[in-house]
Input
Amino acid sequence: MVIDRTSPVPLYYQLKQQMLAKIESGEWKPGDSVPTEQELQQSYHLSRTTVRQALAEMVKEGRLMRQRGRGTFVAQPKFQHDPLRHRGIGHYLLEQGLTPGWKVLDERRIVASAEVCAQLRLARGARVYCLQRLRLADDEPIGYLVSYVPETLAEGIDRSALDQGGSTDYLRNLPAMHESCVERSIEAVAAGEPEAKLLRIKRGLPLLSIQRLITARDGTPIEFLRALYRGDRMKFQVTCG
Output
């Protein structure tokens, strides 16, 4: 492949597209090292600035990753999740050849914070069941989830499902889950020190922050969840119609 210097398409973008083509064709596989800046300059007869711009965009988009002292590598592909299709993330991981799993970090009854009490419509200072887990893909942590359930519902939790199935399987025995409703909000945040350590990423890298509220048919809250997913491994895709 060559760079077309007569084209109105910027040179850095042409280089980027050619590198993307190598990834999508399988010539460059996840984990493979890519040519150095100098090698790309020599191969395509481009300036250092042009090569750096192409690489920087691909790193920002999650297609490449840099490792200090080692070089630049093809990133692992992101897995997609469409919450409107009513399928758990585990299904999408399996479809992409990854083994889903959980690691339970902690479960206990605690005094809920003011925000949790407000979400669950509880009196200030009420106690709740709190569950902390890591979502795994091939034993690699990709998400950190903290769930809160009113203490009055805690006895009905299926503890055998804490480390298997979907994120709501532990609630499956609760009668209130029949015809329940789910409300989600999603935003981008930067990883703080605690979650960066749990997810084995650098502090400040982008995360998908998801808040989920499950309510019974009559509107009574069942669970309030906060989840942080690695931005380099996950993207949400919403299909309408």
